[in-house]
Specification:
149 residues; mainly beta; 61% strand
């Protein structure tokens, strides 16, 4: 139990460090590993890729880290972007879960205020404790834009 507490504390402090480096920070509402609300952050990796991370503290600690390998403007519509990504997820709770999650989403960055709104679909494949597939996970993101790359 003490080892688990130290692990969670280290993970939390690491998360604070990374959030300090984030370009966008906010909240995700909807189906998240571990609950219905998560801290949501974006870390830009280049012009057309980024890391999209969530941490929830509902029934336990849930962490999703997705690499959005496609992140592009939606046609000529100014402010609208679409993205596709995938990555691992971890849930430290009862029962323990480990798996993979995908992501397809659409978001809008306001030009007058530092705010981004987005919706996404996250199909999830749980590998551990049980093996399951969930295709009914949707979410809504509200993020404060700290810097645009």
């Amino acid at each position: 139990m003490i080892v688990m507490k130290k692990f969670i504390l280290t993970l939390f402090l690491s998360g604070l460090f990374f959030i300090g480096k984030a370009q966008e920070v906010g909240i995700r509402f909807g189906d998240v590993v571990g609950g219905n609300v998560a801290v949501d952050a974006i870390f830009t990796m280049g012009q057309y890729s980024r890391i999209h991370a969530d941490a929830s503290f509902g029934r336990g600690l849930g962490i999703e880290v997705l690499y959005d390998f496609l992140y592009r403007p939606l046609g000529t519509a100014d402010g609208f972007d679409w993205y596709v990504g995938a990555g691992p997820y971890l849930f430290i709770g009862d029962p323990f879960q480990l798996g993979a999650v995908g992501e397809i989403g659409l978001e809008y960055h306001f030009s007058e205020i530092p705010l981004a709104l987005g919706v996404d679909w996250r199909p999830t494949f749980r590998l551990v404790e049980n093996t399951d597939f969930f295709a009914d996970k949707f979410g809504f993101n509200i993020r404060y834009v700290i810097s645009s790359q």
